[in-house]
Known about the structure:
The chain is mostly helical. The chain has a single domain (2-280), classed as Up-down Bundle (Rhopdopsin 7-helix transmembrane proteins). It has helices at 2-18, 25-53, 61-94, 99-102, 105-123, 125-131, 148-152, 160-193, 198-206, 209-231, 237-262, 264-280. Residues 8-259 form the G-protein coupled receptors family 1 profile domain. This is Olfactory receptor.
Amino acid sequence: MYLVALLGNCTILFVIKTTSILHEPQYIFLSMLAATDVGLSLSTLPTVLKFFLLNHREIEFHSCLAQMFFIHTFSSMESAILLAMAFDRFVAICDPLHYTVVLTPPRIIGIGLIAVFRGVLLMVPLPILLKRLPFCKGVILSHCYCYHPDVMKLACGSVRVNIVYGLSLVLCSFAIDSIFIVISYILILKTVLGVTSGDGQLKALNTCVSHIFTVFIFYVPLIVLALIHRFGTFTSPLLHVTMANLFLFLTPVLNPLVYSLKTKQIRLAMHKILKSKANFM
């Protein structure tokens, strides 16, 4: 899965970079998503490989905090980029005449920087708040990587501040992003239904299919995992592990597959590159 995630997302980045017709807002946001997925995969690569290949089940405390920080930072960035992609589709469908005026290169760069800074600034307190807590000896994580709610439960002291801040993070990032994504698609659907041509409606909605699927495979495991950690005291450990792995590994693996299969311009660009390589050989 790691190989598929890394190769798939690096291929998307290469195709977009080397194909001039893909230097448009929609594909620039896609390249941001691919880069974030690469970062998310690399964040867990060392511990997961040691766990599955060497059966090495220990991780140094500070390494665990660092991994947790990067996992949650890249997850927050991905959520922000998914919101930016929803906004891109909203402008393209609801206000196409102003598309290039609204989504200028400086604004796209600004959106990307905001996603990065928001992720970093919101997640910096997580390891700091955990580091001040006493931890019992012989503690065991539920997952093969360091996830904040999981690490927090291992503390011997009061974690009330950590819980409050964790909830604030969810509300300030993932919850707000998902709400605005839903609002964007409600407005998109309203605009599409106002189009008299059936072909026009299908064409407009078809440009959103890949993004909608990506939103589902990112948010559904995230929501289920959050509910398990909050209310799943008697939930099977197997369900914990399964949802944790789906949350972390499913999105980076499926995103490049979805966009390469469902986006015509990406498929054509990949075919053109492969054809030129074959002719060169």
